[in-house]
Amino acid sequence: MNTAPLSDEELVSQFRNGHLHAGSILYSRYKNAIYSFCLRMLEDSDGAKDTTQETFLKMMTKIQSLEQGIAFKSWLFSVARNEVLMVVRRKKIVPMEKYDDEVNVTEPSTPLTLAIQSEIHEKIEQAIQKLKIAYRETYMLREIEGLSYEEIAQATGSTISAVKSKLFKSRVALNEILAPFI
Amino acid sequence: MDCLTSKVQISQFLDNELPQELLQPLFYHLGECEECRNFFVRTKVVHEGAKNVEYAAVPKELDEKFAVLEMGEKNVSLMNRKFTISVPTAIYSIGAVIVMVLFIYVSGTIQEKQIAEQYRQTMNLTMPFSEISYDRN
Ligand SMILES: [Zn+2]
Q: What is this model's ipTM?
């Protein structure tokens, strides 16, 4: 008997054919990843909760718009990303057009980033939060979510060379931030 | 190789995206350049560490909202359930329908004869309808 978990593609196919249980599995599979992505992008738990909810509502209602050849995971993150950007624009948290060309990291903005942490992964997490949002999303999609360059390009509506460039710049910035600890 | 190119390639190397033929020049440069070596070590530590960054748990409230997917499945299952019938049951059912139709037909015919007989007696006809002949002469 085959007990391997169903792939995203199989679940998407079942969900499209009206099997809501497949949607439930997809929700369970990605709920924490999407919520964490939104939380790290917005640094606001209420905003993250709302954008996560909107992301999965869109998954339920717009799953038919997922094109052939696009990975479900990158599609779902692109939906989440759009929801996050809408909140960012609405709240005018930061001017989005500035992000693409800036390499510098932002100033520490939360009490958490000021706290002294001993664990290296906590320092890494703090350092990621200091990246500009356009770099942060690319870096998270690569390092935390493990998306390929192509999948990140699909999720962010970007090009592979832009993804490579953002990853490189993110790593340079993280190097600078974490140099005193490593 | 200059240090900028080296660092760009280190980034791609960590992503397993650096072409094989570029590996040797990169490692040759790393052997000679302390700055790039430090960059490589730090970036690799961060690269490994980022994989262990934990997810925040989604609020329970959202789980409750999306439990509708599970609840909905029960309704959909009920709607999509296929009703089947075995061959013997189907034969018995068809037989029962035929018997019922025959019964209605036969009882209807008997009733018609009874009504006709009553009518004949009422009209004082001595001869049954079937035996009356109309002679034009
Ligand atoms: Zn160098």
A: 0.77
